[in-house]
Amino acid sequence: MEPLTQNYFVGVDGGGTKCKARLENEYGDLLGEGLSGPCNPAQSAETAFTSIIEATTQALEAASIPALQLKDLNVCLGLAGVNVPRYRATAESWILPFKYTHITTDLHIACVGAHAGKDGAIIITGTGSSAVASLSGTLTNIGGHGFPLGDKAGGAWLGLRALQYTLESLDSLMPSSNLVIRICEALGTSDPQEIVGKSLHYKSNDFGKFAPVVVKCAIDNDPVARAIVEEGKEYLCEIVSRLNKLGAKRIAMIGGLSSQWAQWLPENIKEQLQPAICSPEFGAVSLVKHVVKER
């Protein structure tokens, strides 16, 4: 077996719903990619660890380089939840099989990728929501406090708000609507106690599964769904205002719900949004290459 003659780098984007890995050589060639399940240490450290290994292994297998093993990889983990010190400590305590591991937030790698390493800011609206500005080497986080305390305008928040309203409607405290009907259909019941029983131990990705129902009903002008969307829209507008005050000249909105929110935002806000140049995984690779070079 031929010995390795160069360094290999993996960028991992770990979020509340999925984990993506990108494997490159030192020349920037994409060698393989991997995709696995939820990867938020704040929700489940064990699941996050497993997802990291699974996605990275997939990327490694896709590369088809016989001599290359997990122990040869320089890896940057951009993870949801590690902005909270206790969960960062959890991630840092993992015994990972890699040559070198650099841990940062999913926001950090997304911002690096979105602006190709230059100054800028991002707003993520996926299962959760958060924002970060990277300006002159300083990172400023906005939101990202985790579900259910934060993550307003994220998929989990949309699902939670829909279930809350559904229960109030079934208790005859609020009028029914098409959203209530569709949520009950998705749950397979219209009995409040059964709904509570089903959702009592839901995590963010479980609530996030109802986000498409809210979006579809909002597009169909259901008043309840539109009111939920309006609340999320106002929150995102406040985030853009805050990023403007910080001096961010380039703002990108990314994540699974970004295209939906973009169509609902006011024109003066939409005009400020720029497309992401590269992916979060690309940003993670760029970060670990820089860190390894500095070391």
Automatic annotation (TrEMBL):
Pfam families: BcrAD_BadFG. SUPFAM superfamilies: Actin-like ATPase domain. CDD domains: ASKHA_NBD_GspK-like (cd24082). Residues 10-271 form the ATPase BadF/BadG/BcrA/BcrD type domain. This is ATPase. It comes from Alteromonas gracilis.
